[in-house]
Amino acid sequence: MVSCMAATRKMTVTIRADLLDEIRAEAAERGLSAYVAEALRFERDRDQLREVADWLQEEHGALTEQERTAAFDELGELDAEHERRRAAGKLTGKFAGGSAPEEAGR
Prior knowledge:
Elements: H1 17-27, H2 32-60, H3 65-87, H4 101-104
Region (Disordered): 82-106
Protein name: CopG family transcriptional regulator
Organism: Wenjunlia vitaminophila
């Protein structure tokens, strides 16, 4: 049997007792380590997005209010389409468009 688990390392962290109690209750079956790893991965991804956003702003300037509004409108349309497809049972773990991602723009 081939294991797909990545190498792991043990670490020690210090957090408030009440926060740890809440996290343990929330983590429940998936386990504290999995919960913490997911939280760290999420925060790392946010940090990387901030770096990209900062770079884009340096390279191209800040978004205008019109550009920001247009972007949020488009995100709203994408969210609505995603919800329609999910409600219709069309999202089954495959690409939501029903084809490979490279074919989606065609």
